[in-house]
Amino acid sequence: MIGAVADRLTRGIDRISDAVSGALFEPVIRIGVTGLARSGKTVFITSLIANLLERGRMPGLTAAAEGRITAAFLQPQPDDTIPRFAYEAHLAALTANAPHWPESTSAVSELRLSLRVRPNGLLAGLSGPRTVHIDIIDYPGEWLLDLGLMDKTYADWAAETLGAMQTRPEGAEALAQLEAADPHGAWEEPQIAALAATFTTYLHAARGTGYSGIAPGRFLLPGEMAGSPVLTFAPLPATGQSPGRRSLWREMERRYDAYKSQVVTPFFRDHFARIDRQIVLIDALGAIHAGPRALADLRRTMTDILAAFRHGQNAFLSRLLMGRRVEKILFAATKADHLHHSQHARLTGIMEALTSEARARANFQGAETASLAMAALRATVEETRKHEGSDLDCVRGTLLDSGKQAAFYPGDLPENPAALLNVAEDGAAEWLEGDYQIMKFAPARLTLKPGEGPPHIRLDRAAQFLIGDRL
User: Fold this and answer.
1) 449: which residues sit within 8 A by CB, 6+ positions away?
2) Cα separation of 117 and 128, whole Å?
3) What's the pTM value of the predicted model, to 2 decimals?
4) Element containing residue 370 per DSSP (H, E)
5) 112: nearest Cα among 141, 84, 131, 70
6) pLDDT tens across 162-207, in order?
């Protein structure tokens, strides 16, 4: 208990120091960047940094358009125990003669970008340029899913997880083994290890199919914890009787509780709870392609995730007394370059509908939210082609698997998002109308002029929402 009190006091002193420094000297904006599976998180961070360093493609960022950002430079991140985001290596992958997508990160990383900014308005003639530090905290989306476990008991989580498995073909084998286990029987380590391995195989298969609600996330990215008891448990069906102390149920429950207290809580405390602003990248097109059930699962997942955010404005005194709160949250539907620009508004509408419940809660608690369709790195060009006497708005790019150029028409998204969401919430296995396809494109070869970052779609608008008011 003494150690816990000391830890809280130390964190409180750190918060006071950060708040005083930011308010009186050089402000710091801590941006959390995460994304669910295949959302392009690493590419987003790399392109954002590159386009803030060379701002020729950032007209939507007001301070850049007005010429008030006089310099931008990278600095060592303030947290010495967190790995540095490998910006240079990722940029080299995207700008090589044979460009390729960079490897996704599997742990928390950080990078500090500092901007020298001239003030505007009444302060323009009273003070000189100031430095604004932007700390970008990159963390796996799989870990973000675990925040929804914070307020769930083992029984609640197990019931929800088994219920989801019943609707997914990928869960049939694991479900049969879990339901055959005796929750009241004495547990043995080989039995628990086998059930956990089968359950983990299901989680990987569900993610590969396009589902989002696949917690615990560390089962997918275990790192140094692989094989440890804290990552060796699985959901069991509820029983009408109280399980004994040495029962399989009690041991699974104990390990689940240990996972929350020893894995999820430290991540929330040390990283997530220190974020000022957050962007959540979502492959909405991938979920639509995967079918109605995957889209409905994405909607529920987003609601669960946002329940873990501490929303509100970061006023100076509130930061001193209560710590940081997430004051801005941006939901970005990625891969907008897979669609013709005429459909981008429809993708944004779907994104807004998917996150409506989560955004309403955040707005009520004082946070500002927004949704947009974007592509951090544009990999395609647009063209219109004739097909059976009609004009089709297509995109053309290099296919990832074959390296060949191809024009692609993904199908028309509906103008009314309810046309998709209602079918999804009804539990339909397939779309009643429409055939929504996606392609995997390789990054295009880049030829950048001096002062230009990589080409993108609405990355400047994302930056304006996240940091524009502080520049």
Assistant:
1) 56
2) 9
3) 0.85
4) strand 368-373
5) 84
6) 999 998 889 999 999 999 999 999 999 999 999 999 999 999 999 8
